[in-house]
Structure formats: C-alpha cells, structure tokens
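As promised in the previous annual report, we have extended the structural survey to additional targets. Below is the entry for AraC family transcriptional regulator.
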Amino acid sequence: MNPIRKQFDANSAFPFSFAYKGTKSMQAELPDHIHDWYELVYVYRGKGTLFIDQTIYDMREGDLFAIPGNTIHRALPDKDDPVTSTAVFFSPMIVQHASFGDSFSYLHCFEQQKKRKSYKFELAHPKRQELEAALDRIQEEIRSSATGCRQAIVLQLQSMLLLLNRESGPAHGHGAVDSSVGPSWMKPVLLYIDDHLFDDGIEIGLSAVSCKASVTPAHFSRVFKQTIGMNLSEYIVTKRMMRAKELLNDTDHKISLIAEMCGFESLPHFHRMFKKLLGVTPAAYRKLAWTPTRLPDRT
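The corresponding structure token record, generated without further manual editing, is:
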C-alpha cells in the first residue's frame, strides 16, 4: 500500500491552502484524502458523491461539507456534470484565539459533526450568500497580496466557522444532514467494521463482511473499492493507523501498547505498516506531534 499524501502549498508560517472554484474530473481527483488539516468544501454547481468516514453523500449546489482532520474522505465527481467547488484547508493553529470567559471554539462545529457522524450542511440561501462572499474575499486577498492579507484571510475563515457553529448549535439542529446514498449494505458494514476494528476474535475480513452484506466477496470488493477508493484490507489498516496517530498525539502510552490497542499482530508489523502508509516511524511521528512549533503532517 503506497502512502496517500494530500500536498499543500501553504508556507510553514501560514498553514492554510485554498482551491477556488475548481472543477474536478474523475481523473484529476485524488482517490482518497487523509490529512491532519481541517477542510471545508463548498459546492457551486454540478453533482457527484463524497464519502466521509462512514457515509456517502450527494454533492449538489449549495452543499457545504466540514471535514475534521484525520478523517478518510473521497470525492467522486459525476462524469457528465462534474462538481465545481471551493476547498479550504487549514491547520487548527491559525484559528486559535484568546479566551474571553466562555468555552467557544471555532473548531466546535467539526467536533460536533464528528460526534454525530454527519458532515454535510444544507444552508439557507442567505447563509449560502454569506459563505460565498467570504470565499470570494479570501480569493481577493490571495490575489492582491496586500498588507495584512493573511490576517484578513484568517478573519474570513473565522467568520465562516462562526456561521457553522451557529448553524450546528441546538437552535439549528436542522443544519446538518445525514445521507442514504450508496448501496443499502454499505453503511451498516462500515459501522460494523468501526465497532469491531480493535476487537480480538471478531472477524472483519472480506469473507465475514461480504456475508454480513449478503453479497458475494467479488461483488463486495468491486463496489467497496469503487466507493471508498481502497480495498477492504487497506481501509482497515488505514482506520487503525488513524487511531494510532491519535494515541501517539494524545497519550504517553508505549508504542508497543498502542500497536496492541490498534489491532496490530506485532510491534514490527505496526512499525512497518506505519512507515509504509505515513512515511515516518511511530517514534518520529510522536516527536513531531509533541514539538510545539511543528506543522501538521500532510498525510
């Protein structure tokens, strides 16, 4: 399995990247994205599907997707009417702010959507106009490179995140939506894999999950690869690696314990797969993760 890297052009002093009103063909679209930066995707026109974590969403005019870092996602544009969208990538560090006596966080909307396993917003027309205006202003700041342009970009990004936080709050529970796109067996299978990803003695290989889906292994493999962008074994390893990254970031557990917690059969196997997928060893990744001035990795 080759490392999957989403490359960014952002300078190390300003961890931000912006792809404005791009139209993606199936050939131009990466098969799947896994990176530590947060991402917003706004659709202007066209259609397609977007797989995020456990769900396949329709992509239509006016849709907005908020994708937390370290989340598998893959877009599949329609071949006849491909999506035109703007994508915003950023490190959490650029939206950090001083505390003003409350618990507000610009990233709260991402955290809420991750808990709900629902990453799509359908905004009312006035809110869409606000969002499009903010994206237009970011593009103008990038184009002009005027004094304070980076500060101006961050202000526009913060205004968009404030809008999403208000839309995802209790008074606006309708803002986030779920989806039933894709084969009927896909989401239950993805939930089953997630539920048993780290369980000993519970089989989540091709034979078991295709049986659970009531389809043949060959049919399961073909549809799964077409939809998710990787085969089942690659998907399982990638999900385990994402959990390993979280544990390396957030705990001081020994690497051998993390390997065991994430379902790897041995420490050498964990080291080998981690470096193959992410390009660095677990110890090197942890060292970068615990360096205060580090950039988020771009895998």
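The chain is about 40% helix and 15% strand. The domain at 16-177 is CATH 2.60.120.280 (Jelly Rolls). These points will be discussed at the next consortium meeting with the crystallography subgroup.
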